[in-house]
């Protein structure tokens, strides 16, 4: 949904090609890729994991073992929108990777650089 910043009124509603289940925590705007910095993308974080808040080490098994970041090109709110679902790219983050200090984590925000 796109809103007018000053009035709060709805400018446009969009359908996304993703199930809205999980624990959606954050949205961020950033470049679509490192090669083309003129296009901007929205990054949607389905990465909340409230059951993992008490996890402190690699042996914790509470909560979700995977979380997701969805990416789509920022829509032009002034352009015609036909109502079709917008396709997303999805990054799956698995906590089974050895790069994480815990086996589970609860993320509350998303930053794109």
Number of helical segments with 4 or more residues: 0
- Helix coverage percent: under 10%
Q: Main β-sheet, in a few words?
A: 4 strands, antiparallel
Question: If you average the pLDDT, what whole number results?
Answer: 85
DSSP, total strands = 6
Report the end-to-end length measured between terminal Cα atoms: 23 Å
- The general outline is elongated
Contiguous runs where pLDDT drops below 50 for at least 5 residues: none
Please list the strands of the largest sheet in the order they lie side by side.
3-4-5-6
Radius of gyration: 16 Å
Q: Beta-strand percentage?
A: 25-35%
Describe the structure.
The chain is an all-beta fold and 113 residues long. The chain has a 4-stranded antiparallel beta sheet with strand order 3-4-5-6, with no helix packed on it. A hairpin with a 6-residue loop joins strand 1 and strand 2. It has a domain at 16-94. The two termini are 23 Å apart. The chain is elongated and about 50 Å long. It contains no helices and 6 strands.
Properties at a glance:
6 strands; 113 residues; single chain; two-stranded antiparallel sheet; 30% strand; mainly beta; four-stranded antiparallel beta sheet
In short:
With 113 residues, this protein is mainly beta.
Helix/strand layout:
Elements (H helix, E strand, L loop, with lengths): L1 E2 L6 E3 L11 E8 L8 E7 L19 E8 L15 E6 L19
């Amino acid at each position: 949904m796109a809103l007018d910043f000053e009035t709060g009124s709805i400018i446009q509603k969009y359908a996304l090609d993703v199930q809205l289940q999980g624990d959606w925590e954050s949205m961020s705007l950033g470049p679509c890729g490192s090669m083309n910095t003129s296009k901007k993308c929205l990054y949607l974080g389905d990465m909340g994991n409230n059951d993992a808040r008490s996890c402190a080490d690699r042996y914790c098994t509470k909560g979700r073992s995977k979380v997701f970041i969805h990416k789509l090109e920022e829509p032009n709110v002034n352009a015609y929108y036909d109502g079709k679902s917008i396709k997303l790219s999805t990054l799956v983050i698995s906590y089974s990777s050895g790069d994480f200090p815990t086996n589970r984590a609860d993320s509350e925000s998303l930053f794109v650089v």
